[in-house]
Amino acid sequence: MKSVMTMFLILMSMDLGISQELDSIEARIDSLRFLESSIVTEIDDLRSQKEAIPQQINKLELDKLNLQIGEVIAETVTSTSGGILRASPSASSKMISKIPGNYIIKIYNSYKQPYFKIKYKEQIGYLSYGSIELNPTLEIIIKNNKKTQIRKIDSKYRSSRRTYRRGPRGGCYYINSNGNKTYVARSICN
Questions:
Q1: CA–CA separation, 129 vs 137, rounded Å?
Q2: Which fold is adopted by the domain 70-133?
């Protein structure tokens, strides 16, 4: 009877050890399932963040571009015949694109006669003001720029030793060292 009892105790202890082992395995399975669920949630969050990155990059590139080219001062349309977008403010500079007539464009605060800096389909370049339907804002910019250029020319010709005279047909001149008339910009006599 002692041996049956011993045997019973051994079986009970084995059963208890197996039960504890099963509980431990079950706890590890639950832990792994929770970890898997957490990882899936984190992957979904990372995917959402990844999908938002290109939009953020585009916005930052646009902000960078806006800082480089200045603020928009006007919005207008190209003339009916359209125009040529150039890389720099010169008729001989590289052509970037042809712009169709009556196309809405944004004009930036950069004017180098006779070109405005504009944006056309995410491309930045220069368009001759002859290719743009002028509005009052643009006309003021052109007028002020021409005055600035005339002042530069005037200062080049002005001298305290010269006396400028207006001729009978409205021209402006001075008498040079040889005693001859030298004509200059009419604005100097103003």
A1: 13
A2: SH3 type barrels. (2.30.30)
